[in-house]
Amino acid sequence: MTYRRHREDVLVRRSVTVETIPSGMPVELEAGQLAQITQALGGSFTLLVEGQLMRLKGQDADAIGKEPPQAIAVPEDLHIDDLEPLVWQTLATCYDPEIPVNIVDLGLVYRLAFEPLPEADKLRVLVDMTLTAPGCGMGEAIADEVCDKVLALPRVGEITVNLVFDPPWDRSRMSEAAQLALGL
């Protein structure tokens, strides 16, 4: 299977802070700047601006004339025992901005665990995850996205994301769907 990217030219409508890829360094895009969307997955956008890839958070989608992403529909009366599948579903909306496959299918999530909090019906979520390369500058940005999305779920009171590199990640950790999507 071949993965084809669709690119779309956009005009930055208001100044906005983005993160350069792969360093993760924040930079400001000014209104009137031309950009090209190279990837729009998981609620964030990968932009090509003057030869540099940049990541725009979904909450700032209006800066390029797009709608912010829709949140995962969650019942208000979610039972605490039903939280784990919802967390996995949420993790599957997080993407490395350079790879069109979510972090779950890439095999980057090594552990998902829960601990009770003193507050009734609230849990601490513990995630051990890795990166495709230890020096990836987007690690903090991906971990922040995981935190933001999981903390928005009901019954989640805290989250800890540990970036781990043992065992090292390799392509054998990818799901079959991910391998097919990437043509491997």
From TrEMBL:
<dbReference type="InterPro" id="IPR017776">
    <property type="entry name" value="FeS_assembly_SufT_put"/>
</dbReference>
<feature type="domain" description="MIP18 family-like">
    <location>
        <begin position="87"/>
        <end position="161"/>
    </location>
</feature>
<dbReference type="InterPro" id="IPR052339">
    <property type="entry name" value="Fe-S_Maturation_MIP18"/>
</dbReference>
<dbReference type="Pfam" id="PF01883">
    <property type="entry name" value="FeS_assembly_P"/>
</dbReference>
<dbReference type="InterPro" id="IPR034904">
    <property type="entry name" value="FSCA_dom_sf"/>
</dbReference>
<protein>
    <submittedName>
        <fullName>Putative Fe-S cluster assembly protein SufT</fullName>
    </submittedName>
</protein>
<dbReference type="InterPro" id="IPR002744">
    <property type="entry name" value="MIP18-like"/>
</dbReference>
